[in-house]
Amino acid sequence: MRFPSRIAVTAALTASMVAAVCGGPARAAEPALTDLTFGGVHNAYERAAYPYLVDALDAGNRMIEIDLWTFFGQWTVSHSNPFWSDNNCERGATVGQLRDSARNQQFTHCLDNIRAWHEANPGHELLVVKLEMKDGFHDNRGRGPDELDAVLRERFGDAMLTPADLMGGHATPDDAARAGAWPADHRGRILVYVIRGTAENDSLPTELEYARHLRDHPADAQVFPVPRGGYGATDPRQGYEESLRPWFVVFDGSAASFAGLPAERRAFYGDYFTAVTSAHEVAPALDPVNPPAEQALARTRTLGCLGATVVSSDWRDVPGWQGPHTRTGC
After folding, report:
1. HEC states along 141-173?
2. Where is the signal peptide (predicted)?
3. Burial of 135 by CB count in 10 Å (0-12 exposed, 13-18 middle, 19+ buried)?
4. 327 contacts: CB under 8 Å, gap ≥ 6
5. Nearest Cα to Cα of residue 160 among 197, 196, 118
6. CATH says 45-225 is which class?
């Protein structure tokens, strides 16, 4: 008769003790943030995309994009008009009020709509909010990085997933990202990142201004800045002063460019949060608005297997592609 080894007995006893203390077998850890892929809709704030912003959230989108103007000292949400808001946000502050008042509201009302949905759906999957600062920040008009932090903090508090949450005890976000410190406790959280706007022409672009703010106030900053340049042959952070480079850990660029990178170059982004746009343009091209659901899902999974954290397109009426998706089976 063979007896179990001392190691086997010890392991079995340890497992039994863990189960007894924890009330059952130990569960597998939640995947880290950058081991998942989330899908969402480009310009989800437009009425042509959804009648109300809450409709975009109820449709399962894990990322929504908002275009934000600041030039006139307002938080104006519009695609091309800086003078007044043109969007599907309304004044509702509870989930029961989100489809019964006038739309075309300010950015703060868009955030109120998101907060109402967030509070009505505790434990929701991570929600990513992409802000295109159409004309950049205007700190001299009270619309700078610290004011953006304030309106986000006021509405979402600890639900915000911030650079400080990533950093933990690390010196910079880059140190944390390369150490694999992206949090796994991202349910019920909101992550916001900012990109340079298409109408921005000042000498202090969005990503530079916010990266300096983040470097100087790492405990307070609510938002992740994105370096200009998308996905190419070199690290887009090289175009910035050396002290700022470690404060960029979120990247955003076209899905076609990302998919077209050599594997060794794409591997560079493996530690980072990578958002890819216009997923329908990757060859073979898909319908930009309403492809068959299985095609949208397959494209999202393919880009996820290549390393994309967020996949966006205009697939507003397509169900089930937004995930999140794990990379199991890639």
Report:
1. HCECHHHHHHHHHHHHHHHECCHHHHHCCCCCH
2. 1-28
3. buried
4. 35, 36, 37, 304, 305
5. 118
6. alpha beta
**β-strands 190-196, 224-225: how paired?**
parallel
Distances (CA, A) of 31 to 54, 183, 320, 324: 27, 9, 20, 11
DSSP for 76-126, written as a single string: EE-SS-SSS--SS--S--SGGGTTSS-----HHHHHHHHHHHHHHSTTPPP
In the chain, where are the structural domains located? 45-225, 226-319
* 3-class secondary-structure state, position 239: helix
Cβ atoms of residues 206 and 136 within 8 Å: yes
How far is 321 from 315, CA to CA, in rounded Å? 9
CA distance 168 to 284: 42
Q: Which of 297, 237, 307 is nearest to 60 (CA)?
A: 297
